[in-house]
C-alpha cells in the first residue's frame, strides 16, 4: 500500500474514532443531565384514545364508541371518560372499573362494572411508578399541572399519573343529561350535571396528561383530565377543583 493511501486510511480511522468519542460524550452528558435534574424520562406505556370530547360537546355524539369489557389487558389498567349518553362518570383504577351516577344533589351511586360504554375514553396500562413528593406550594389543579411539567422531559406523548393521600377539599361532578336530550354545545352537554364537595377525605386521583389532546380528552384550557375516587369508594367523579392536604404524585414509567 502506498504512503498516500495509508495516510488517507489512517486519517479516516482517526476521524471515525473522534466522531464516536464525541457521540459517546454527548450521550453521557445527556444521561447525566437527566439523572441530576431528577426529571422523568423513562419510556412510558402507550396511551389509547377513543372518540373525542369535542364530538360529544359540539356534534352530540353521545353513544358508546368503546365498551370497557372489550379492553383485553386489564393488568394495571387505568382509564377515564363519561358514561354513554352522559349519564354518569367512568374510572378504571388499577384494573377495577367504577361507574358513578347521580342519585340526588347530595348523594350518588358508585358501582364496579365493566359492562358499560363511553362516547370518548382514554386508557393505558401502568404497573411501575415513580413516586414524587409534592412541593409544599402544590395545592390546586393548576399547581399540579405546572408541577408535572417541571418533572418531565418528553412532552410529546400522553401518559397516566396518579395522586394518593388526603384531600382538604375538592369539587367533583357527575354528568346526568336528561333522557332524550340533544347536544350541540358545551352548555347543552352539561345540563343536569351535579356537583359534589368532598372535604378531608383520603382519596386517589387518576389523571392523564397531554399537550396535544385539547378537545379530545382534555378541555381546551388544560393539559389534564382527572377523576377522583375516595379511598372508601363511596364517591367518584370528574375533578374540577382541588385543595391538597397531603398527597404524593406517581408518574408511570413502564
Low-pLDDT stretches: 4-10, 14-42
**CATH architect. name of the largest domain:** 2-Layer Sandwich
N- and C-termini, Cα separation:
54 Å
Task: Provide the number of structural domains.
Answer: 2
Task: Compute the average pLDDT.
Answer: 86
Radius of gyration, taken over Cα atoms and rounded to an integer in Å: 23 Å
Strand content: 35-45%
CATH superfamily of the largest domain: Hypothetical protein, similar to alpha- acetolactate decarboxylase, domain 2
Overall geometry: globular
CATH topology of the largest domain: 60s Ribosomal Protein L30, Chain: A
Largest sheet composition: 6 strands, antiparallel
Order of helices and strands: HEHEEEEEEEEHEHEEE
Supply the number of helical segments: 4
Keywords: Lyase, Membrane, Transmembrane, Transmembrane helix
EC number: 4.1.1.5
Pfam families: AAL_decarboxy
Transmembrane segments: 12-28
